[in-house]
Amino acid sequence: MSGGRRRFPPLQRAQLVELACLEPIAEGLHITHWTGQDLARQAVADGIVDAISPRTVQRILRGCDLCGAPATPVFRPWSVRSALELCGP
Question: Of 10, 57, 67, 82, which has the highest C-beta tally within 10 A?
Answer without folding.
Answer: 57
